[in-house]
Design goal:
Structural class: alpha/beta
CATH topology of the largest domain: Rossmann fold
Number of helices: 14
Mean pLDDT: 93
CATH architecture of the largest domain: 3-Layer(aba) Sandwich
Largest sheet: 8 strands, mixed
Number of strands: 19
Helix content: 25-40%
Oligomer: single chain
Strand order of the largest sheet: 12-11-8-13-16-17-18-19
Distance between the termini: 23 Å
CATH superfamily of the largest domain: CoaB-like
Bound molecules: cytidine-5'-triphosphate
Low-confidence stretches: none
Number of domains: 2
CATH class of the largest domain: Alpha Beta
């Protein structure tokens, strides 16, 4: 469905991503018009924007020539969607409080379009209670979608949330595919914690980002998503039902209760647990070394994959390896009886990172997916998983 998409650019370095977004939207047949704040012109040239959009680009509310063409009220009426990206702290403050002192903010008040806001700023600014309060106000309004920012290295050198998502992700927010409609997807994510005593545990470095990105993208694409999550610092994605677990045994119970139509296991499950966790906090015993007896945890995904055909979901695992990636991944897929396995190399600094590459392995095929942001990789994995699932007898 062709949409009229108005893009409002405010003054942030991430404005450089907008020309690519415009090209993606135009490629899929959308009509795009652009307005910007005065500050945005410091970061992106209006000439570039005009060239990619093929339309006059406006920033001045009082430009008589522009008003003679499509006046600002007509422009507000024209738009089906109004994306403000990057949306700075300043712009969010104005929008939250109804201040309209330039074209971009005036259009916000004048339009009946669905509003998409992409907050983009330094991580400390984003975390400020004033900005968070403005975002909460805006998110609560009808027909408003706040697009979660990506986290990672920022232009200012800080590391944290506040990056503008990649153009492909922004496009998908504006025009979500609905190809996962009504499919029950269970995603597991994050680490497990295996208790040593009431205050200590064994765990791993999983951040949960890949699983959360998959859950968020599938929900946007229409799936009914259950996210079984170990402890992470991540917010529950919109439209996702989250079940919190701690240990591998908790995970097994939750997975058996909610296997879904498709079971996608991104959790980094501890292979072992402490045989006899202590009931009380353990004390040091002089200088003696500590020996912990460990027993193997249940292999959750292998248990799910071994369910009888009536309840067995289409089962997709991850193989995180530091060496012999494809050899180990192929063997793991076969051993656990998985339909697909996603091989990913964790020899670098993938844990907690914002980008990743992968190879999708089935019995018949191997598809390499290049290094990209975890959210872009999630979209691509969902494309391939959906296609492979539709080949099975369970669903069309
Ligand atoms: N997995 C699981 N339950 C476990 C261990 C792993 O469900 N007890 C799942 C993971 O979520 C992942 C896949 O199995 O989807 C492979 O996990 P990985 O840790 O790579 O494999 P292991 O079976 O632990 O093999 P190994 O540690 O020997 O490499």
């Amino acid at each position: 469905m062709t949409q009229n998409i108005l893009i409002g650019i405010s003054g942030g370095i991430a404005a450089y991503k907008i020309p690519h977004l415009v090209r993606l939207l135009k490629k899929q047949g959308d009509n795009v018009r652009i307005v910007h704040t005065a500050h945005a012109a410091h970061f992106i040239s209006p000439t570039t924007l005009q060239a990619v959009s093929g339309e006059a680009v406006r920033h001045d509310l009082f430009d008589p020539a522009a008003e003679q063409g499509m006046g600002h009220i007509e422009l507000a009426r024209w738009a089906d969607a109004y994306l403000i990206a990057p949306a700075t702290a300043n712009i969010l403050g104005k929008l939250a409080h109804g201040i309209a002192d330039d074209l971009l903010t005036t259009l916000y008040l004048a339009t009946n379009a669905h509003i998409y806001l992409a907050p983009t700023m330094n991580c400390h600014m984003l975390a400020h209670p004033a900005v968070q309060a403005n975002l909460a106000t805006l998110a609560a309004r009808e027909k408003h979608t706040v697009i979660p920012s990506d986290s990672g290295a920022q232009a200012c050198g800080d590391i944290g949330a506040g990056r503008l998502p990649e153009p492909e992700t922004l496009r998908d927010w504006l025009t979500p595919k609905r190809d996962w409609q009504d499919i029950h997807l269970t995603v597991t994510a994050g680490p497990t914690r295996e208790a040593i005593d009431p205050v200590r545990y064994l765990s791993n470095h999983s951040s949960g980002k890949m699983g959360y990105a998959l859950a968020a993208a599938a929900a946007r694409r229409g799936a009914i998503v259950t996210l079984i999550s170990g402890p992470t610092a991540l917010p529950t994605p919109p439209g996702v039902t989250r079940i919190n677990i701690e240990s591998a045994e908790d995970l097994l119970a939750a997975a058996l209760a909610h296997p879904g139509d498709i079971y996608l296991s991104a959790a980094a499950v501890a292979d072992y647990r402490v045989a006899h966790p202590a009931a009380q906090k353990q004390k040091k015993q002089g200088d003696a070394p500590l020996t912990l007896a460990l027993v193997q945890n249940p292999d959750v995904i292998a248990t799910i994959a071994a369910l009888p055909p009536e309840t067995r979901p289409y089962t997709v695992g991850f193989a995180a390896e530091t060496e012999n990636l494809l050899v180990y991944a192929r063997a793991k897929r076969a051993r656990k009886n998985l339909d697909l396995i996603i091989a990913n190399d964790v020899s670098g600094d993938v844990f907690g990172a914002d980008d990743n590459s992968a190879t999708l392995i089935s019995a018949e095929r191997e598809i390499p997916l290049p290094r990209q942001s975890k959210s872009a990789l999630a979209e691509s994995l969902l494309d391939h998983i959906r296609a492979a699932y539709s080949q099975t007898s369970k669903k069309s």
